[in-house]
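Hi there,

I know you've been waiting on this one. I reran it after we fixed the sequence typo, so this is the corrected version. Both the input and the resulting structure follow.
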Amino acid sequence: MTNQHVAPDKHDERIAEALSVCLTYLDQEEAFVQGNRETLPDVTPLLAARFPSSTLLEAAYAHGVDGIESPTVSVLIEDSKAENPRHFDPWYFVVLLLLELSGGRIVLDRSNMGEWFYAAFAGSNKRQNINLHRMIANTPIWGDTKHYDNAHHDCRRIRLYWVGKNLIRKRGQKTRDVSKGREDIIQFALGIFRRELERQYGSQLQDDSVLPSTDLTLVDYEMLLRVALQLADSVHEKYRVQSQGASSAAA
């Protein structure tokens, strides 16, 4: 269950440890993208790294999940009804961790028709959330995210694609005029971070105020999220190209 009552010293220690793990992973991602590292970043430390309010439970790492030969983090998300793990690329899983840094939560919410649960990012109110599939696929506000084989539990980018809303309407299907996207998730996370700074500092809050145990200002946190997403996109593309090259060579 989510640990909402961590002793102050343990609370700060967990924040510092989880952030250190995430930053190390990002450093390894950068080295991989730039060609200074031959292997993918080491995902093992991410499996146990959690910020104090995290709703991410047990996580496991594997290849070949659901028949797709791709590195995969399968993680349970705290929920009273949904029991199956969600599958993520490790390079996007680290972004999920960073979204929870200052009190955000990864949650499961029901789809509009109520037929399945989708992974989303939320604050204290679970119902006010943004679909994580849109962030991972980088779906534009004028598009909708779809799953190959209707695999709603699979959040790996290779299983996601987006379709323009105009096409969806031509098919006679309903869709919003516009939907939230990656930028909205970043701004949502920044709002949570800002409120936590206000709670910590009150009237003494300044532009250079940092979240305790992190040395991160609001501007630092924004940069961290943007860099993490950019690296995730770059690692995904490089791994995809490498995998295609290996398959061609073996053919």
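Quick highlight: The two ends are 47 Å apart (CA to CA).

Best,
R. S.
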